[in-house]
Amino acid sequence: MAEAAAFAALWVPFCRKHDIEPRNPESYFGLRRDPTKNKRRQDFVRDRRRVKREYDEFKVRVNGLPDAIRRRSDAFNAREEMKQMRRMKEAAAAGDQDVMIEVVKVKKATWMADGTHWPGTWAVTALEHGKGDHASILQVMLKPAMAEAMYGRESGEQLGIDFTEVDVRLPMLVYVSREKRPGYDHNKKAGAMNALVRASAVMSNGPFILNLDCDHYIYNAVAIREAMCFLIDHGGEDICFIQFPQRFEGIDPNDRYANNNTVFFDGNMRALDGLQGPMYVGTGCIFRRFALYGFDPPPAASNSTPSHHPHFVVAETDSFRPQSFYDDELNPSFLPKRFGNSSALVESIPIAELQGRPLADYQSSLYCRPPGLLRIPRPPLSTSSISEAVAVISCWFEDKTEWGDRVGWIYGSVTEDVVTGYRMHNRGWRSVYCITAGRDAFRGSAPINLTDRLHQVLRWATGSVEIFFSRNNALLASNRLYFLQRVAYLNVGLYPFTSVFLLVYCFLPALSLFSGHFIVETLSVSFLVYLLVISITLTLLAILEVRWSGVGLEEWWRNEQFWLISGTSAHLAAVMQGMLKVVAGIEISFTLTAKSAVDEEDDAFADLYMVKWTSLMIPPITIMMVNIIAIAVGFARTIYSSRPDWSKLLGGGFFSFWVLIHLYPFAKGLMGRRGKTPTIVFVWSGLIAITISLLWVAISPPQGSEAAASMGGFQFT
Ligand SMILES: O=c1ccn([C@@H]2O[C@H](COP(=O)(O)OP(=O)(O)O[C@H]3O[C@H](CO)[C@@H](O)[C@H](O)[C@H]3O)[C@@H](O)[C@H]2O)c(=O)[nH]1
Ligand SMILES: [Mn+2]
């Protein structure tokens, strides 16, 4: 972190000077296109070369850190040991028995450059210095900047870069690691977010908060400004967050397992934008801090005339702080009970409320922020606010408060994001979906391996089942949740259950081939009409998704395929897991989504071809096998039959084939790298299929379709 903060002093002014995008040096320097495109300043090439060189050196230094830290720690530890020895010798000389008897072993610590012990996890695990057992750590890596622009002649001087006209200020940067103790439930990401919200409330109290996963980065430097336009605009006071679509890098060009999730991000989420707003999907989201605190939204500006809301009458004398809708709720004597025992935190809340309001303009003077309020210079960071921030990230701070329950990120779900957003919508807040033109706002990485992908979907689906069986079920929502939004949230909790029906659909065609009966006894008019209506509805939905949301046809098809793959594996498992939790109280663990290792030189997508066994694969494999065998059986029967009924074979075969082509990416995933495993898999499955079909023919020789019909155990009428 210290290295990164130091490099930022060069990198950030460079980006400002030359309008660099993206502002992640690794992806910027990795761009394949011509870096000089649209660059007109004469010194660009020289600056870029110098910054690139610094960046490479920075990377090498970071690579060397584990070694450097170990060497430093060894040296410090050895010195400590020496000191100890000397003390022992002295004690022995003085004849002090107690010290002699005490077998002194110096505890191996990890040392920081300034000669102090690193408070977190030590290289050699020790008491109070292990994973899940250490004190709060809070390090101000970059101090808050001054209020006025600072032009940096000196900053670039030793590198020969001219920053005379560039604002070289950097934002405050703080490293936070909350206290962890065995025996405490730390509530994973939600708990981490809440600690961050409190620490930042005490240290900077920015009225808006950007939340990014550790595997995402900013790809468009002006995206945040776009979000601000919604949040501080007149009429935007009841917006709780601005969600950006999740976009991914390092996914195979075919997007075999629909990792891009385009139908969700460009279809569903955009559609929700027309209702009460998109769901919160955990990353790439800018919150209004005050909305995170569990308050109701202010009444919409359009109907907040003074006559309707007596709260809004602005007292002439109170010109700085307009009367608040929240005056009752923000009574300092109630707040500690909800937010915990920190006066600094409690005092920051009304300020966040005021600063988060829309800017005053000529239309709305009632619920607004006075002009210039955010430009008032902040007091410099004091030691007392730092120690207060350390206090609010201790692991007992949330005891007997409403953090995680009503305030902040909500606990108790593996999809804390959906629940957190739902709670806000349920209070009547709106959200906005912001698709930035031209450049994606943020980018991240996704699992490209079949197994990891299935586990990811399993976690999401499990979260959904949990939501369905919890008080966050949309059926129990308040009447502030719009009707259609409620339907959408209901769908979020319900979709894993469709896997049960999907499973039936996948076996039906095979059943019909085995039994020699088509799904219906005869192709009646009513059956065909049903089929037609369903097909047309599905086609219309597909057209809507493809045409309106601009999802490519191939991407759309990948989504369809993966819907069936995940439906028959992960969703099914999630339903069972969820039931287990509800019925037997067995907990579900959060497995972190594995990230693909992009920098493997020989093959960028090596991870894609890795086959890692998981029991989630059993149902789709079974479906595939059964359908292949069924086609073989049906075919054999028809050939050997005295009166072959080809239309039945065609009917059953078509639906079987339909199931199989959905599972094609799954089959490919099982085979690993092309050319290695597939032959053996093909041989075996072929052999098994032929054996079983011959067996079938031998056991029940076809006696013509009429006889077979009377024998069949299944009647679909
Ligand atoms: O114990 C934990 C686990 C996760 N994280 C964070 O949570 C993020 C999401 O985890 P990841 O393994 O990347 O899961 P994904 O499936 O990629 O994440 C999606 O789904 C999660 C909910 O299941 C959301 O929290 C994420 O924001 C959303 O991007 C990580 O980046 C971490 O920043 C923690 O802080 N603590
Ligand atoms: Mn992720």
Automatic annotation (TrEMBL):
One of its GO terms (molecular function) is glycosyltransferase activity. One of its GO terms (biological process) is cell wall organization. It is a multi-pass membrane protein. Keywords: Cell wall biogenesis/degradation, Glycosyltransferase, Membrane, Transferase, Transmembrane, Transmembrane helix. The keyword Flavoprotein does not apply. The keyword Glycoprotein does not apply. It comes from the Eukaryota. SUPFAM superfamilies: Nucleotide-diphospho-sugar transferases. It is found in: Endomembrane system. Gene3D superfamilies: Spore Coat Polysaccharide Biosynthesis Protein SpsA, Chain A. One of its GO terms (cellular component) is endomembrane system. UDP-alpha-D-glucose binds at K188. The chain crosses the membrane at residues 494-515, 527-550, 562-580, 616-640, 646-667, 679-699. InterPro entries: Cellulose_synth, Nucleotide-diphossugar_trans. This is Uncharacterized protein. It comes from Dendrobium thyrsiflorum.
